[in-house]
Design a protein that fits this description.
single chain, about 280 residues, alpha/beta, Oxidized Rhodanese, domain 1, about 10% strand
């Protein structure tokens, strides 16, 4: 049975030598470029390959498309193939930032129609705490051909602008409350949020042990936030389309399927000064 949302450390440990499984280390530090690669070089889960959030899970920036724009799907599929992923493989992603970057890779594979992808519940910290094996040996994948097709799982800035009038969609902003309210902005040039967006910090999806809350609890919490809004009307955003995937994954775990991503998010939104900004 394929894993499509989460996998536990004990379950993953049973498949470390399974050639049909591909593991990606997505460790990333937003303010320290290269920190994830250095951490991977020091120690990682046996067989894991490194996925760079800035390079592998993002496309070229042009100053108007946000800090982590989506890559060209063909380019991303070629990268997946070079790293041993085809349609038959079970993919597992993990990181050290509460599974935000891992959730980005999870969403991107879903975007291409690949359902056999899961996030390691508890991440790197949970794996180490559980006493599971680690290594510094770099995995050498056998290239294969990945074949997928982009799905309609995201919206663009134009859709969000149009929504300001139609209110067909409800945006959920995954950033910290202080950034959402415009009280501080440590990364992007403008503080605030997209008018009408709700706020749910992605870390609120996690229990105190760093693992995701139960499906029932997530369903209750998102239900209270959405007030009856259907999941397929929900669009997730954050600063650059990474941590927003965490909220999208949490809704999937809760059985609230069908929400979408605004990949450009706040960093793309404020690149155009004509777009409105709210503060509260």
């Amino acid at each position: 049975m394929p894993h499509t949302t989460l996998i536990s450390a004990p379950e993953l440990a049973q498949h470390l030598n399974d050639q049909h499984w591909v593991i990606f280390d997505c460790r990333h530090d937003l303010v320290k470029p290269g920190a994830g690669a250095r951490a991977y070089a020091e120690s990682h889960i046996p067989g894991a390959q490194f996925a760079d959030t800035d390079a592998d899970l993002s496309g070229p920036k042009n100053g108007k498309n946000g800090r982590h724009p989506l890559p060209d799907p063909q380019v991303f599929m070629q990268w997946l193939g070079r790293n041993g992923v085809d349609s038959s493989r079970q993919v597992v992603a993990y990181d050290n930032v509460g599974s935000a970057s891992a959730a980005r890779l999870w969403w991107m594979l879903r975007w291409l129609g690949h359902e056999r992808v899961a996030v390691l519940d508890g991440g790197w910290e949970g794996w180490v705490k559980a006493g599971k094996p680690v290594t510094a040996a770099v995995a050498v994948p056998t290239p294969v051909c990945f074949s997928g097709a982009p799905q309609s799982l995201w919206v663009g800035a134009g859709d969000v602008v149009h929504n300001l009038a139609t209110k067909e969609m409800v945006l959920i902003d995954a950033r910290a409350t202080e950034r959402y309210k415009g009280l501080t902005e440590p990364i992007d040039p403008v503080a605030g949020h997209i008018p009408g967006a709700l706020n749910r910090l992605y870390k609120d999806n996690l229990a105190s042990d760093g693992r995701f809350k139960s499906a029932d609890q997530l369903r209750q919490e998102f239900g209270a936030l959405l007030s009856g809004t259907a999941p397929d009307r929900i669009v997730h955003q954050c600063g650059s389309g990474v941590s927003a995937c965490h909220n999208l994954l949490a809704m999937e775990i809760a059985g609230l399927r069908g929400s979408r991503l605004y990949p450009g998010s706040w960093s793309e939104w404020v690149a155009d000064p004509s777009r409105p900004v709210a503060k509260d």
